[in-house]
Design goal:
single chain; 271 residues; alpha+beta; paralog of FGE (formylglycine-generating enzyme); 5-stranded antiparallel β-sheet; 4-stranded mixed β-sheet; 3 helices; SUMF_sf; CTDL_fold; formylglycine-generating oxidase activity; Formylglycine-generating enzyme family protein; Sulfatase_Mod_Factor_Kinase
Length: 271
């Protein structure tokens, strides 16, 4: 992936570079006192990629095609993990999650509307931060990390790479571990761009709703965003079959829906 020269954004507390590329960090101080929480974001440059799945991808869904070229005209900073329970608690002062016991687990049981409240409060505490949910296109691009295979890890996955229901492997792969719960973020290997658990663990809300694909190339596509419109979730979760964790797999729910395997990660689009 091409890496651009970028100075530390005014809203960030740190900037660095490692084998995956550029990163920034924000440090959030809980309003009621307690330990600060650090969240890292990865830089994803503007790009063009193929969105959706090819017709010959095993166990694909019809709504994943036709595969089409998408241009993302602006780079963006993306959380390298799903939002943790620690970060949610630091911002919101409470923890809605069902699967607790380690505050490095992703927050779960949050609706799309809940996430908007989190974003409003977090952004208000830091001028210029302007975090949002990623669009479906931004999410899939980041998940793929330059690949065109069903998973960023290749044509198959194992429970050592992804937290899913290992009793239901992809195609004819061997059965494996079913953890029956989330794992702390960054527990499993990252993709090639340093992003953790883009496949499995928790479903991740996107900003926009489901759009119908066409074969035509698109730039910065967005699905419906009217009040009450269903919003896309991506990535699958700890309780889903391997096929659901594919990069192209799409799901959607009402913005008020709140289930035990719904989480999110945030994006900051470059101006």
């Amino acid at each position: 992936m091409r890496v651009e020269r970028i100075t530390r954004p005014a809203w960030a507390d740190a900037l660095g570079r490692d084998r995956f590329g550029l990163w920034t960090e924000i440090v959030v101080e809980p309003e009621g006192g307690g330990d600060s929480v650090t969240q890292r974001l990865r830089w994803i440059p503007p790009c063009r990629f193929l969105m959706g799945s090819p017709e010959d991808e095993p166990l694909r869904n019809d709504n994943e095609g036709p595969q089409h070229a998408v241009t993302l005209s602006r780079g963006y900073w993306l959380f390298d993990t799903a939002c943790t329970q620690a970060l949610w608690q630091a911002v919101m002062g409470e923890n809605p999650s069902r699967l607790t016991g380690d505050d490095r687990r992703p927050v779960d049981s949050v609706s799309w509307n809940d996430v908007q409240g989190f974003l409003t409060r977090l952004n208000a505490g830091r001028p210029g931060l302007e975090l949002s949910l990623p669009t479906e296109a931004q999410w899939e691009h980041a998940c793929r990390a330059g690949t065109t295979t069903p998973f960023s890890f290749g044509v198959a996955i194992t429970p050592e790479q992804v937290n899913y229901n290992g009793h239901y492997p992809y195609t004819d792969d061997a059965k494996g571990l079913f953890r029956k719960e989330t794992v702390p973020v960054a527990s499993l290997p990252p993709n090639a761009w340093g992003l953790y658990e883009m496949h499995g663990n928790v479903w991740e809300w996107c900003a926009d709703g489901q759009r119908d694909y066409s074969a035509e190339a698109e730039t910065d596509p967005r699905g419906p965003e009217s009040v009450g419109a269903k919003r896309v979730l991506r990535g699958g979760s700890w309780k889903d079959r391997a096929r659901i964790a594919r990069a192209a797999c799409r799901y959607w729910n009402l913005p008020v829906d709140r289930f035990g395997n719904f989480g999110f990660r945030c994006v900051r689009v470059q101006a």
